[in-house]
């Protein structure tokens, strides 16, 4: 069982559920809402299942040839709260001292390989300096995302005032550990047109949900379905590594899904959900019964509404094939990128870096209230001409005006982008044209030839990439009875539950209570947040009663420069900046009244992770403290954050 296939075949299987000992006392809600901890309802028939202990991890040092032990330091070399990267001869480990105890684990974040020694140590966990993933120092388990794997943990002993680490050589090389998982057991007498857990969507939220269920000992059937033709992949890389193939950005290999019996139905679109009878109806007429449902369908990219929008070579980058084709067609061609979203900006940066030098062009600051801009890239083997067009007025140029851009006007992502120095764009020959938009796409032999602006200007174009935003992919739920707001977002509570018992939702498509902002219902379409949504949903399918409390954390890169962001800056009224925007080395604190609600930085690690830890602890950072730091603090100094907050 498990793996990837496009349409199920009628096979009879029998499923048993393994419930961990610690969960025996917890109640699982049956379809009628009554407590039924030991019963799942499948095909309308109540069945009892065996109870077994959660599998115990095997001894990681069972092979003596795979073990290395080395003295790494004196006990007095580390103070409490310090970390050190140590070399064991065949690999490195991260040594940590907290509350008088030593801990050792992998030294690289399993997500993208960030050095954790440069991260933030706080209350028993280490936060990655790049993207904010958190790892428990006692177990190595991942506690906040992004990423799927945990860290290997190594044995530490003290002898004669020296610290020794005993570790697996293989673990030192891989620097990652996949948690132990259950499997689907007793395959017989089970109709494949029904499942215990159905996950609609195969992005980060859906995959983390499936993995968490298995990690918690759940051994009934799990089915994921997706409109995509591929197994789950790292979607953010589509705009950052546009030439990547699906297998290069896959979140898990095909063998993983087979091993842990997580079934993935590809190219399968759900057309409707019958919540009364717990049935998902697919577009081709196939029906599947479920007991628990997770909706994690993400967003659907908006399309241009202008004349000629149907011509060939106009793309929303949604799949690896889209990204690959854009890169292929861009060579020695003219490309127009429409949109101020991260997709548009990152696509431009990636294409501009595709081994093409640029000719000079003027640069004007984009407006913070920009709603529909357009990048134009004219490629050849010797030159690249870049222009930017959009609606709105020329934006802030320098100093105080950029410091005071309003959150209600620009939103969180725009708030980050309006900080970037004009020099950054000038260095890459970017020219901005404002107060314009696309009015027509002209074709020749049904392929894109020109982009016509409302101003009358005509741009030569062989390829057009559209990144003008997205809408929730929830149209199929309109008649379902599931609570959806006026914008199409699914409304959930702190446990990712909808208004329908047994139905959960996660990822870009939900409005959920954000603890950081006093449980205000928000939509946070971040990769990290989708992971956490999936985990919380899975835990509550198992009746854990776990509430979401994570701090939003996002990142991006432009022209090789990384930008970090944590918090939720909606409605901010001021930005306090330390550093130099033009030198691309700064930290920006977004404040609302006297409270810091978000932070962004460039070349200032790990301050965003540090602020995220302060906020995660439930403490408030005051604007007056930030202003004092900016006025008197040294660049890179974060000691003022220790103990701050109320």
* Shape label: globular
The unreliable regions are 9-58, 352-411
Helix content: 10-25%
Strand element count: 40
H/I helix tally: 11
| Main sheet: strand order | 1-16-15-14-20-33
Based on CA atoms alone, the radius of gyration comes out at 26 Å
Question: What does it look like?
Answer:
The protein is 16% helix and 29% strand. The chain has 646 residues and is an alpha+beta fold. The strands form ten sheets. Strands 1-16-15-14-20-33 form a six-stranded parallel β-sheet. Strands 4-13-12-7-6-5 form a six-stranded antiparallel β-sheet. Strands 22-30-23-24-25-26 form a six-stranded mixed β-sheet, covered by helices on one side. A hairpin with a 2-residue loop joins strand 39 and strand 40 (595-602). The longest helix is centred in the last third of the chain and has 15 residues, at 527-541. The radius of gyration is 26 Å and the shape is globular.
How is the topology of this model organized?
Elements: E1 3-5, E2 39-42, E3 45-48, E4 67-74, E5 82-87, E6 92-98, E7 101-105, E8 120-122, E9 125-127, E10 134-136, E11 142-144, E12 153-159, E13 162-168, H1 169-174, E14 197-200, H2 204-215, E15 222-225, H3 254-259, E16 262-265, E17 270-274, E18 279-282, E19 287-289, E20 292-295, E21 299-301, E22 314-315, H4 320-330, E23 334-338, H5 342-352, E24 374-379, E25 384-389, H6 399-403, H7 407-417, H8 422-426, E26 430-433, E27 438-444, E28 447-453, E29 458-460, E30 463-466, E31 470-472, E32 490-491, E33 503-505, E34 510-514, E35 520-522, H9 527-541, E36 553-558, E37 561-567, E38 574-580, E39 585-592, E40 595-602, H10 607-616, H11 623-632
Parallel strand pairs: 1-16, 14-15, 14-20, 15-16, 20-33, 22-30, 23-30, 25-26, 32-34
Antiparallel strand pairs: 2-3, 4-13, 5-6, 6-7, 7-12, 8-9, 9-10, 10-11, 12-13, 17-18, 18-19, 21-31, 23-24, 24-25, 27-28, 28-29, 34-35, 36-37, 37-40, 38-39, 39-40
Helix pairs in contact: 2-9
């Amino acid at each position: 069982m498990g793996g990837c296939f496009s349409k199920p075949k009628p096979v009879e299987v029998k499923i048993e559920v393994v419930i961990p000992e610690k969960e025996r006392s917890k109640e699982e809600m049956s379809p009628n809402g009554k407590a039924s901890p030991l019963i799942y309802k499948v095909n309308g028939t109540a069945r009892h299942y065996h109870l077994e202990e959660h599998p115990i991890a095997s001894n990681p040092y069972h092979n003596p040839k795979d073990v290395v032990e080395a003295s790494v330091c004196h006990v007095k070399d580390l103070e409490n709260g310090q970390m050190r990267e140590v070399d064991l001869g065949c690999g490195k480990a991260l040594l940590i001292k907290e509350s008088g105890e030593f801990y050792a684990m992998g030294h690289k974040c399993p997500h993208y390989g960030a050095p954790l020694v440069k991260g933030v140590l706080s209350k028993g966990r280490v936060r990655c300096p790049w993207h904010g993933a958190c790892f428990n120092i006692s177990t190595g388990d991942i506690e906040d995302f992004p990423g799927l794997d945990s860290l290997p943990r190594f044995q530490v002993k003290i002898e004669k005032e020296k610290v020794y680490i005993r570790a697996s050589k293989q673990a030192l090389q891989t620097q990652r550990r996949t948690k132990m998982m259950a499997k689907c057991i007793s395959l017989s007498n089970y109709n494949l047109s029904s499942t215990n857990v159905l996950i609609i969507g195969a992005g980060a939220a859906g995959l983390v949900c499936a993995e968490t269920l298995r990690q918690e000992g759940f051994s009934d059937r799990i089915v994921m379905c997706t409109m995509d033709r591929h197994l789950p992949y790292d979607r953010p890389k589509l705009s950052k590594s546009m030439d990547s193939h699906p297998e290069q950005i896959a979140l898990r290999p095909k063998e993983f899904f087979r091993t842990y019996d997580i079934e993935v139905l590809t190219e399968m679109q759900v057309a409707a959900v019958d919540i009364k009878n717990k049935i998902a109806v697919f577009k081709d007429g196939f029906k599947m019964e479920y007991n628990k449902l997770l909706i994690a369908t993400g967003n659907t990219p908006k399309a241009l509404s202008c004349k000629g929008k149907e011509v060939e070579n106009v793309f929303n980058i949604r799949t690896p094939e889209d990204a690959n084709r854009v890169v292929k067609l861009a060579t020695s061609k003219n490309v127009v990128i429409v949109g101020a979203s991260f997709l548009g900006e990152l696509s431009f940066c990636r294409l501009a870096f595709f081994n093409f030098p640029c000719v000079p062009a003027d640069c004007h600051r984009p407006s913070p209230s920009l709603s529909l801009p357009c990048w134009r890239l004219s490629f050849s083997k010797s030159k690249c001409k870049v222009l930017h067009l959009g609606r709105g007025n020329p934006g802030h140029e320098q100093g105080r005006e950029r410091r005071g851009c309003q959150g209600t006007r620009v939103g969180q992502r725009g708030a980050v982008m309006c900080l970037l120095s004009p020099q950054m764009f000038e260095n890459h020959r970017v020219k901005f044209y404002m107060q314009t938009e696309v009015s027509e796409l002209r074709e020749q032999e049904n392929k894109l030839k020109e982009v016509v602006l409302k101003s009358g200007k005509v741009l030569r174009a062989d390829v057009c990439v559209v990144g003008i935003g997205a809408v929730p992919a929830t149209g199929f739920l309109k008649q379902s009875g599931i609570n959806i707001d006026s914008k199409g977002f699914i409304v959930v509570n702190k446990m990712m539950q909808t208004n329908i018992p047994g139905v959960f939702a996660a990822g870009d498509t939900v409005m959920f209570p954000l603890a950081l902002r006093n449980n205000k219902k928000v939509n946070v379409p971040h990769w990290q947040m989708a992971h956490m949504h999936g985990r919380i949903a899975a835990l509550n399918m198992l009746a854990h009663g776990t509430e979401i409390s994570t701090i939003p954390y996002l990142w991006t890169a432009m022209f090789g420069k990384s930008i970090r962001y944590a918090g939720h800056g909606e409605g901010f009224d001021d930005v306090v900046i330390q550093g130099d925007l033009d030198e691309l080395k700064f930290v920006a604190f977004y404040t609302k009244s006297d409270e810091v609600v978000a932070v962004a930085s460039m070349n200032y690690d790990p301050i965003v992770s540090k602020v995220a830890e302060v906020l995660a602890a439930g403490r408030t950072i005051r604007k007056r403290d930030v202003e004092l730091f900016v006025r008197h603090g040294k660049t890179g100094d974060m000691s003022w954050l220790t103990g701050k907050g109320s």
